[in-house]
Amino acid sequence: MIGKRCARQKSFSGNVNGAPRLKSPGITSMASKQLSPHFSYDELTTTELRQFIELNRGMGVNHIPQLKKVCVDLLEPIRAKWGPVIIHSGYRCPDLNKAVGSSNRSQHLLGQAADFHVLGRRNGPPLRDVWAWIWQESELLFHQVIWEMSSWIHISSTTGYNDGQIMDYNNFKYTKYKNVNGLLKPY
Ligand SMILES: [Zn+2]
Asked: Which pLDDT tens digit goes with each residue over 60-102?
């Protein structure tokens, strides 16, 4: 949804696809669970705000079908094309979402979105190529793909029609585009 914003995250604490290294006490049954062949529950519930991680992983269990859909429909094809995908943020519980300054309409609250970069493509043009591939060539069914602060990609799906919204976010402002014969045009 427009108006939602992903908080800037200076670093990430995700694991490289399918190699969980942090286990939260009390939810060990979920700690190593795979959501798809290359993405684990831990990766999709990670946060750099470590004080929220146990709470987030405790609440994320209510959103597993949505997280699986993001992994299977979006992240796995991206990984197949570009290599290991580093998740900055997937599901965010309300307290975490508020702490990172995100909107209360964020799809992260529903487990329907992920922020990521690709291994070796952390920032700038190399990562922007991935963003461009997603809307230009991939034929992925996404709700939104956002080029955020030239630093990471936000991608989301919905349970309804995935209408392929293309956006970038810079200087606290969203710009929305449409794909016209493979070129970005103002929406
Ligand atoms: Zn996001």
From this structure: 999 999 999 999 999 999 999 999 999 999 999 999 999 999 9
Query: At a CB cut-off of 8 Å and minimum separation 6, what does 162 contact?
Result: 141, 142, 143
- Distance in Å, CA 137 to ligand 1 centroid: 21
Cα 31 to ligand 1 centroid, rounded to whole Å? 22
- Could you tell me the distance, in angstroms and rounded to a whole number, from the CA of residue 28 to the centre of ligand 1? 26
Average pLDDT along the chain: 88
Kindly give the distance from the C-alpha atom of residue 91 to the centroid of ligand 1, in angstroms, as a whole number: 9
User: pTM for the full model?
Assistant: 0.84
Asked: is 34-186 a CATH 3.30.1380.10 domain? The reply is: yes
Sort residue 14 into left (φ over 0), alpha (ψ -120 to 50) or beta: beta
Distance in Å, CA 155 to ligand 1 centroid: 7
Q: Which long-range contacts (CB under 8 A, 24 or more apart) does 118-125 make?
A: 118/78, 118/82, 118/83, 118/84, 118/85, 118/86, 119/16, 119/83, 119/84, 119/85, 119/86, 120/83, 121/82, 122/151, 123/150, 123/151, 124/150
